[in-house]
Amino acid sequence: MSRRVAVVGAGSSGLVCMKCCLDEGLEPVCFESSDDIGGLWRFKENPEPDRASIYHSVIINTSKEMMCYSDFPIPAHFPNFMHNSLIMDYYRMYADHFQLTKHIRFNTHVLNIKKRSDFSRSGQWDVETENKDGRREKHIFDAVMICIGHHCQPNLPLHDFPGNTW
């Protein structure tokens, strides 16, 4: 029986985590709250609440050789410093090549993750989700990987800068 791993988020980290799970003979189930992969790198003219989005003209400030996945080089014809649309193209190629999308449950929010009552013996986790139609499900996983990024909630330490109002 394959060990099941919950992967929360299908952005750059979630994609590679699913692929690594597959490499190790694990069964990843990715919960992505939006309708597509890419996370922060998927440009949206009107970003959804609590979801980060780059702006339309962003060009990555890291070379393609430094930002690519080690087992899937970025195509040679892509520029060294890529526009965000090419990063999304690359993520789609990666997901297609390793058949990752079949492991993703789109439009599914993770509501709760907690250790099972027998965690000290089983090492398992309870994961509760809700899809876009409002249907809730409870799942049991052997491991959990949180890949939601860190750009969703603004960090504005305004108390550290008296007199400034932003």
Secondary-structure topology with pairs:
Layout: E1 4-8, H1 12-23, E2 27-31, H2 64-67, H3 84-97, E3 104-105, E4 108-115, H4 119-122, E5 125-131, E6 136-141, E7 143-146
Parallel strand pairs: 1-2, 1-7, 2-3
Antiparallel strand pairs: 4-5, 5-6
Taking the sheet with the most strands, its summary is:
4 strands, parallel
Instruction: Tell me what portion of residues adopts beta-strand conformation.
Output: 15-25%
| Low-confidence blocks of residues | none
Topology pattern, helix = H, strand = E: EHEHHEEHEEE
Radius of gyration based on Cα positions: 18 Å
What's the β-strand tally?
A: 7
**Helix-strand makeup class:** alpha/beta
Mean pLDDT: 91
Helix tally? 4
Strand neighbour order, sheet with most strands: 3-2-1-7
- Gap between N and C termini, in Å? 54 Å
Protein name: Flavin-containing monooxygenase
Cofactor: FAD
Keywords: FAD, Flavoprotein, Monooxygenase, NADP, Oxidoreductase
Family: Belongs to the FMO family.
